[in-house]
Amino acid sequence: MSELIFSASGRLTHLICGTREMNAVWSARQTVQSMLDVEAALARASAEHGVIPSSAVAAIVAACNADLIDPDAAKYVRWGATSQDIIDTGTVLQLRSMFDLLEAGLNETCDALANQAQTYRTMPAIGRTWLQQALPITLGLKFAQWLDALIRHRERLAQCRSRVLALQFGGAAGMLASLRDKAPLVTQSLADDLRLQRPTLPWHTQRDRIAEAAACFGMLTGTLGKIARDISLQMQTEVGELAEPAAAGKRAVHQRCRTSATRSAVQPCSPPRCASRIWSRPCSAAWFRNMNARSAAGRLN
Q1: What is the DSSP string of the chain?
Q2: DSSP assignment, residue 243?
């Protein structure tokens, strides 16, 4: 499956579109593959409990590749599930990969900030209010404040992860009617196969899990943008309290300028401006879901 490239490394705005690793998690191909992973797991779970023939499983699993289709096994694919079950659970699998990347990045950043806070715990620095000089502080305090916020985000993401990584499996109306008495067994096997929680009830029409994840990601984006803005302000020529280290591939903003560019600090400043508009969409979907029903009765389960 071909991919459109929306970002270009080296541009000040390329982080608006995410890192290479995060883009891979949410690429078009990986989105399809995550849904196919759910299809394959459902086939294994259904065969385990005699809902579909075991002989069909190998063909279904082999065909669950974003680049392949096996029409002979198609009639047994997604038995008992509806399209939204596959889409939602596929999204949850992508969110799991996203949580993994964020956890690793936060751990690395927190370790770095803890080291800086310890190193500069007694170094005097200018305290400011509304960009005006105020009472003195220590530079270590500044690093510690950033660290404190990111530790809360790390805890928040861990709590969010425990709620969000749940299977969605309810069938056309949330009753799994076509699986009959095998529904609980297939549901548990599917959750085990995908290493997801088995929720108390199907949650397709209750979007709070997705909204919570979006809110957590948005708050983290805002904090990182705030830290980046602090750094860029302290790197101003007339302030000169912080500076980026020289590194391969970095260059001055202008050929005549001998000072280091604030590229690394500038890049994270742009995404927070977009985050509030983006995260409002899944939050709105939490209540808009049933307003968009195709009939007067709607789908209320």
Answers
A1: --------TTSTTGGGG--HHHHHHTSHHHHHHHHHHHHHHHHHHHHHTTSS-GGGHHHHHHH-STT---GGGGGGTTTT--HHHHHHHHHHHHHHHHHHHHHHHHHHHHHHHHHHHHHTTT-EEEEEETTEEEEEEEHHHHHHHHHHHHHHHHHHHHHHHHHH-B-----SSSS-GGGGGGHHHHHHHHHHHHT-B--SS--TT-THHHHHHHHHHHHHHHHHHHHHHHHHHHTSTTT-S--PPP-TT---SSTT--SPP-HHHHGGGSHHHHHHHHHHHHHHHHHHTGGG-SSSS----
A2: -
pLDDT for the residue numbered 279: 62
Question: What is the Cα–Cα distance from 244 to 261, expressed in whole angstroms?
Answer: 8
Please tell me whether the overall predicted TM-score, pTM, comes out greater than 0.85 for this model: no
Mean pLDDT by 10 residues, the chain (301 residues): 43 63 89 94 95 93 83 75 92 96 96 97 93 93 97 98 96 89 94 96 93 93 91 88 72 43 59 64 62 44 49
How many percent of the chain have pLDDT more than 90?
Answer: 54
Instruction: Name the strand (E) or helix (H) holding 39.
Output: helix 28-48
Partnered with residue 136 across adjacent β-strands are 126
Give backbone dihedrals phi and psi of 134, rounded to 5 degrees, phi first.
Answer: -130, -145
